[in-house]
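Follow-up to my post from last week.
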Amino acid sequence: MRETFRLSMAYLHTWLGLLLGFVLMAIFFFGSLSVFDREIDRWSVPETRAQAAPFPSFDRSVLPIIDSVKPDPESMEHTAAEVIGKLPPADALKAGDVGVYTNHRDPILRMYVAFDVPNKPRDANLDHVHVYGFASVDPQTGERLPADIQDRLQLGTGFFFPMHFMLHLEWMELGYWIVGLAGMVMMAALVSGVVMHRKIFREMFTFRPEKARLRSILDLHNMTGVLALPFLFVITLSGLLIFAFMYLPSPTTLMRPLAKAQELVEAAGTGLPVDPSGKPGKLASVDAMMEAAKARWAAKGVPGEIGSVAIIHYGDADAYVSIARDNVDRVATSETLHFTGSTGALAYEDPPASGIRTTEGFLYGLHFQQFRHWTLRWLLFAGGLAGCACIASGFLFFVEKRKKKHAAIGVPGARITEALAVASVTGMLVATGAMLLANRLLPVDLPGLAGWQEAVFWLTWLATLAHAGLRSGAAASGGFSPAWGEQAGLVALLAAGAALANWVTTGDHIIRTVAEGYWPVAGVDAVLLVTAGVAGYVALRLRSRVRRSGQATPAVTIKEPAHV
Amino acid sequence: MSDAVLVLLALLAAVAGMAAFALANETHWRQMLRERTQTGAARTACKLFGAALLALSFLLCALADPVSMAMLVWPMLLGVAAATVAAFLTLKARDRSCR
Amino acid sequence: MKEMLAKPGARPAMRPLRAANRFAAAIVGGYLFAYGFTALATFTGFGAGLPFSEAQVLAWMLGALVYLGAILWGFVPRTTTKAWTVLAGGGAAMGVAAWLLSRWAV
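User reply:
Got it. Predicted complex:
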């Protein structure tokens, strides 16, 4: 195909980067935002701006609420499509498992109830499916949050985070698969990027902004890629592993009898009942179990707080309670303790993790980032943005290199790519800023508030694409399209506007939140203001460059032939 | 010594280490030290020194946090350190070309 | 998008359809290769004494890297047919092997 391996890698890098780069921009950008998803939640639902609190009393605060949780209508719809026959009515469903979890960053205790579904699943590989119901509890008061606050769309965990791993494309789980493909392509792009660049480590500190635009764009692309290389590779690999069970189910599909048999063997090894007995049973004090768990961790030299509590086979005689530690001080997950529901005695303790489980836990942990380490959290956020910068500069290089040639021979490729790149980079920022602003400005009692906010996001993004397309002719043979500067200016206005709207609608402005030490909101406002500053500066620089040069500077050819 | 101070020192060590590695490169050596030539011995010394400083940086990270966290913090600090050195070299080059 | 290489003597760029075929061989063929590999690697790990679920986790970790290697290698052979044969064929062979071996083991 190509004469040397290096040239093949260059070809692969260019075209895979182009095909999936747009998706990867979104994945890395929303992934970066997801590092601070719970902080964005606090910002977007001001009623929940409270300090995080440790796990409250389970017996007094949580148990009484379980019976009041109803199946979520959306979940009913989703599960109805997964089963054969009609689902029983929501009221007739019985709770199977209950899970409660909190986090050192989250003041809200979250609960899910998994209702048993008697219908057989359509997918032969699944044993059974559940319908889910949700509740949120204020740990300070022990009260369930009012429905209108609980159902409010939380922009972090409820929108930006799912956007990151499935692009809000639920049909046939297409979003998950596109993200998976993008992840594989990212790793291929990283490796091929290193292979095709002969002097990559020699040129690690090289950035020449004073040189011709094409050279300095390439310098930026190479530098952001190399400096963040370990992070980019490992974060991508770990992300793929999280959904590996979906992407590569071959051990279960090709070796189903063996897999099923071994599942039973491994479950039997724990001594915990896989299926409920069918007979009702009483639950012993969960608070006592939580105390026992904390005592056991302290005895093992790892004292800690409760992270999550799950009741399996709720209401059954064979119920058991799984209690996991809130892992604020380590990357990987730690062992869970399992207590017999009826007696409260310790039934099973997860054994020390094997090498493979430790590695798995470490990779999951570095991606889910549940630890308490604010420096590391900000560093990972910066790493994600470096990934965005790498991809964006890759687009700019591709476009700039071909603009003059394409304009001369009348091919629209470079213009189309640039319009898509504008929408994918600045357009995405504009849409995000617009959504945050809408979150503050739309009335809280507006019916379908969540839908309205999401509509603002998607329609704004579409509009930025249209804008980029319309403006693409202005710099068809060279130089940056004016859309870049115009959208950068818009980003500055929206980001500053969102911070301002936060002040006006909640009274929380950055000086006050910093003085009070309420970092979740202070942090989000700070990032908004810095974004506004940077975007504004970029917009002004791009405008002055156009004014100075009058017309675009010609594209420069690069010596290295490998950059196709 | 508090954890924050240890991580800061780790960052400084990383910056120094990255600077050493940059100096191991002929272009940057000439940029910083006007001498025309760089001996092989000097290059090796820069690389060894750089490696030692980066190792020190990891040690400081491991003192500040449990090792599994240090294993994440350290590579990220290296990235920041390299970016800092690159920014410095870029500004220095600009300075010189403007004079 | 006609000439992309400044290097003299280089072959001209591939026509879109042939390029699409090559990408398909690398990505789809690579996926099939990884799919078969994961099953066979799980069985091998299980046979070596690991709990099945752990063998599966290890197979996934290696499988992602194997898929990566397959995608990169897919652009190396001179003909796309060879790429398809090795990747899809290899994947199918490993998958069938896993299927057979697992039934013999149960």
